[in-house]
Specification:
The chain is α/β, with parallel strands linked by helices. The protein has 2 domains: 209 residues, Spore Coat Polysaccharide Biosynthesis Protein SpsA, Chain A; 118 residues, no CATH class. Helices cover 56% and strands 12% of the residues. Helix 7 packs across helix 8. The longest helix is centred in the middle third of the chain and has 34 residues.
């Protein structure tokens, strides 16, 4: 059973050489990606053991793209590998932690394994504690899945997941958050084991910016909410406008006509926003649209029924529309993330 350790490296120090030697000694394949570090770092990469597979970007493209480059290479050239472990180049991940990730993957081959650091120690740099506090709580709220260390670079997964993860958007640190989002959304088991927290020189070698990169990570989680909220506002506006001008047809007819027209327009916009900017599934547009259309019909009927029931209870039409829309917002998120835009498994 073969395993390969992927190490994205941008302006590394000599810790990379030490880690690569230890991996080779433990019979692990090692793929290092020089992510446009520059000529001044060639001396470090040239000292890597001969057994290391060295890939390179001509210019810096980000950690996410470096991992994708390695995954694409493994998919094409290392077809007999069972598992993949990603580790950082700055010495934060000990050889013992990497080997434990390997053992965890053997035990749970269908899971995404995370080597999670503890952040309750005062020796942990403030920027690391702050970044993880923000992202893990927002991730838990958005995905109903608690992950203690959302930013850990030590991960392990089966090569059967390569095609799924190659579709993930994001070239830099947001790639790792998107990986967690996709795993949670597709029902993939996420398992954590605790590792020793190592910070060399107070973590100065890390290229993670706690504010800039946390904003990127938070943004990718917020996209669905923003897309849905904008279309929700459009739906309410169109419904109120149409209901005003069709009131002469009678209350029931007015609500149904206004609901149908407003929902068709807002839903079409919502589909293309979600397909293009929110979800990373690789389902074809045609198949996704058919599933989305079925969801829209269900939502339309449920929305109209809820509005009619609340109007009968003497609740204002617009308020009733807002209440129904809020309930169905949550239902739509679950169905879209797990069914409509779910990543299509390759044969």
């Amino acid at each position: 059973m073969k395993f390969v350790c992927v190490i994205p490296a941008y302006k590394p120090d000599f810790e990379l050489i030490s880690l690569a030697k230890k991996l080779i000694e433990r019979d692990l394949l090692c793929v290092v990606v020089n992510d446009g570090s520059g000529k001044e770092y060639d001396s470090i990469f040239s000292q890597l053991p001969a057994q290391v597979i060295l890939l390179a970007h001509a210019e810096n493209k980000g950690k996410g793209q470096a991992i994708r480059t390695a995954l694409a290479y493994i998919s094409e050239s290392l077809t007999d590998v069972f598992g993949i472990i990603t580790a950082d180049a700055d010495g934060q991940h000990s050889i013992e932690a990497i080997l434990e990730a390997k053992e965890q993957l053997i035990k749970y081959p269908n899971a995404l394994i995370l080597g999670s650091r503890r952040f309750d120690n005062k020796t942990v740099p403030l920027r690391s504690r702050l970044g993880n506090f923000i992202t893990r709580n927002i991730f838990a709220l958005a995905n109903r899945k608690y992950v203690y260390d959302t930013q850990t670079g030590l991960r392990a997964f089966s090569t059967s997941r390569i095609n799924d993860f190659l579709q993930i958007k994001g070239n830099r640190y947001e790639f790792e958050m998107n990986m967690l989002i996709q795993a949670a959304r597709n029902g993939m088991d996420i398992r954590e084991f605790y590792i020793q927290t190592i910070y060399l020189d107070h973590n100065r070698s890390s290229h993670f910016n706690p504010f800039k990169d946390s904003i990127k990570i938070i943004t990718c989680i917020a996209k669905y909410s923003l897309s849905s909220f904008l279309c929700f506002l459009l739906d309410i506006g169109l419904f109120s406008l149409l209901a005003h001008y069709t009131i002469a047809l009678g209350q029931t007819q007015s609500i149904i006509i206004s609901e149908v027209i407003a929902r068709c327009i807002s839903s079409t916009l919502n589909f293309f926003l979600n397909k293009t900017f929110v979800f990373s599934g690789n389902e074809s547009t045609g198949k996704a649209f058919i599933k989305y259309a079925i969801l829209v019909i269900f939502t339309l009927c449920a929305d109209a029924l809820l509005v009619l029931l609340m109007v009968e209870l003497n609740i204002n039409k617009t308020l009733a529309k807002i209440i129904a829309g809020t309930i169905l917002f949550c239902v739509n998120y679950l169905v879209q993330s797990r069914v409509v835009f779910k990543t299509r498994k390759e044969e």
